[in-house]
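Same chain as my last thread, 317 residues:
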Amino acid sequence: MSSTALNLSQTESMTVGWLAGHKEIVIVIAVAVAAIVPAMVFGIPSNRDLSNHFRFALPFYDALVSGNVFPSWLQDSNGGYGDASFRFYPPALYYLLALMRFLTRSWYVGTLATFTLINAIGALGVYLWARTILPSREAMWSGIFFSLMPYHLNQYYQATMLAEFAATSVLPFSFYFVEKVCESRRTRDIAGLALSYAMLLFTHLPLTVIGSLALGIYALLRLPKTHRLKTTVALGMGIFLGLLASARFWTTVLAEQASIRADNILPDPSVDYRINFIFSTLSPENLNVWWMNILLASTFAMLWPALSLLWSSRTKP
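reply #2:
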């Protein structure tokens, strides 16, 4: 047998062995990819928001190709005069779309590859986070449920909230590294928290705000009984480094946010939070609330079996 054939045989054996030893991860990623298959078969879901995302993505890619590493001017809007959207909108999604467009030479294939990758990464992040406190089988189901959660699917298939969809896949890693820092305070875990938090800021600001509140509460609940001060300092260092790593973006937003005038000139009542509370109405006349009500009810329905099992286990004699 030639050395080449022997090497191929060894590589194949190692690959099969790795897959067998990590079958939960393989299943989690397979389900995440399967969740995007309808888009591969029937086409990328399209609505007004998708057009707006590509109104950003195309000139962003052109700017990168021309050598502008940090695009800050959307050249095609306002009849060619452009606007400053890039200075306020988190750029991480558009960097990834541009990379996939460059690698695949196709916006269509690149877009499918982008969101397949994003969904797989998010499911893996949930698995890793759950694995810190659960056996591998239960952690696997956590990753699977992430890919199938009604609101998460809605982000991609119905609402085309693509940046939020991407940020939802980043957030589990922040929770994972908070857990790891609370567990051991290792330097690499602090660095992981910093990187994941910076990526969250670079991807979607509203989810960063919501996620920061959730991370703070989670950290308080997971602080160890000993070395609380050291752990708190380590967590704070991770968040501080994340803010520092993303400062080029958020400092610009803070310094120039007074320049945003669109809502002052032509307010859009459909995005006014005061009329968009869950269950504030059951009427389909307010489609935002009506659809969110359905998604929330579907999410509660997914939780019902777990709640039933928990209740039955506690009521058994």
